[in-house]
Amino acid sequence: MRGAFVDQGRLFSYISPEARVPLNHPLRKIRALVRDVLSELNRSFGKLYSSEGRPLIPPEQLLSALLLQVFYGIRSERQLMEQLDYNLLYRWFVGLSPDDPVWNPTSLRRTVSGCRTARCLRSS
């Protein structure tokens, strides 16, 4: 007997993204390593950001997202934002909940290019 198709419309789930990622997935070990390294840099990050103004993308999430871009060969920040919008694995790795809004690609591009420029200025 054929089952009836019922379009759910909205996704509502009691299962956390953490529970959806298989225990043997390679990103689990990488995520743990990345979190350890970034937690050691937390104090340094705090010194780089102003206490005034509009909140920026947390550097821990930004760096995690850029790692995903490299790991999965995502060609642009715009495509990265698209993937972060609907890929639960990517959201889990970066630390976004399923309901968190994804960053604007333009502000991401500005933030990334600002970090690159600041790094270049320090190295010269």
Helices, strands, pairings?
Blueprint: H1 17-20, H2 26-40, H3 42-48, H4 59-71, H5 77-86, H6 88-94, H7 105-123
Helix pairs in contact: 5-7
How far from one another are the termini? Answer: 71 Å
Helix content: 55-70%
Please give the radius of gyration in angstroms: 17 Å
Characterize the biggest β-sheet. Answer: none
Total helical elements: 7
DSSP strand content: under 5%
Class by alpha and beta content? mainly alpha
Q: How many strands in all?
A: 0
Poorly predicted runs are none
Q: Label the overall shape.
A: globular
The run of helices and strands is HHHHHHH
How many domain modules? Answer: 1
Query: How would you state the average pLDDT, rounded?
Result: 81
Brief rundown of the structure:
By secondary structure, this protein is mostly helical. 60% of the residues lie in helices and 0% in strands. The chain has one domain.
Give a structural overview.
This protein has 124 residues and is mainly α. The chain has one domain (25-44, 56-123). It is built from 7 helices and no strands.
Annotation keywords:
0% strand; 124 residues; mainly alpha
